[in-house]
Design goal:
By secondary structure, the chain is mainly α. The chain is built from six helices and four strands, in the order H-H-E-E-H-H-H-H-E-E. A hairpin with a 2-residue loop joins strand 1 (about 50) and strand 2 (about 55-60).
Length: about 190
């Protein structure tokens, strides 16, 4: 490879992975995935037929239709969490309620597998909040910055040579007013020039 060789752009797989990561980051992805995974066993087990050699084992119950409805609704709610983020709280609460109902209706909630997935997915959907845009300062601080608020230490001003500049005490004129537009005030026992 020579210095004149142009740098190749990222491959197709890398671009797709980044697009998926960006898509996943803007929605309650894991909540939807767990809710969908919870709906599958709830809907599947009442209609499953297992074959052990020549013996056929069916799990069909009288509430098979109810299990199918609960499973399909959970899958739909999981997809709703992905594509309609504004309804995530409703979808989360509905998923929790359907998971609880599946305990009674559908083979102990799909043998507790579907129940736990749907319950966990609904809880994640209710607790998910959209992230702040870059540059917006919410409750988090950027790295390298300390806490803001009362009692916080302000950063030391630095000169162009990255050496700390010694603090200058405010001064006042003889008539009690600020000199040259510099205002001084006493705050927390120290002086602040503003």
């Amino acid at each position: 490879m020579s210095a004149e060789t142009p740098v190749q752009s990222a491959g197709t797989f890398t671009r797709l992975r980044r697009r998926f990561r960006d898509w996943r980051g803007g929605r309650p992805f894991w909540a939807g995935l767990f809710t969908i995974l919870g709906g599958v066993p709830i809907a599947y087990f009442p209609y499953a037929t297992l074959k052990l050699g020549t013996m056929s084992l069916t799990m069909a119950t009288t509430a098979g239709a109810g299990s199918l409805i609960i499973g399909v609704l959970l899958i739909t709610l999981g997809l709703t969490m992905w594509f309609q983020q504004a309804t995530r709280v409703f979808a989360g609460v509905a998923s929790i309620i359907l998971a609880l109902v599946s305990l009674v209706v559908s083979n102990i909630g799909g043998f507790l597998i579907g129940f736990l997935f749907a319950l966990f997915g609904g809880a994640l959907a209710v607790s998910w909040a959209p992230g702040k845009a870059d540059g917006a300062e919410g409750g988090r601080h950027k790295s390298g910055r300390g806490p803001a608020g009362e009692g916080a230490v302000e950063p030391t001003p630095q000169s162009a040579d990255d050496e700390p500049v010694p603090p200058q005490a405010p001064y006042e004129t003889g008539d009690g007013g600020p000199a040259d537009g510099v205002r001084s005030e006493v705050r927390n026992g120290g002086y602040r020039v503003g």
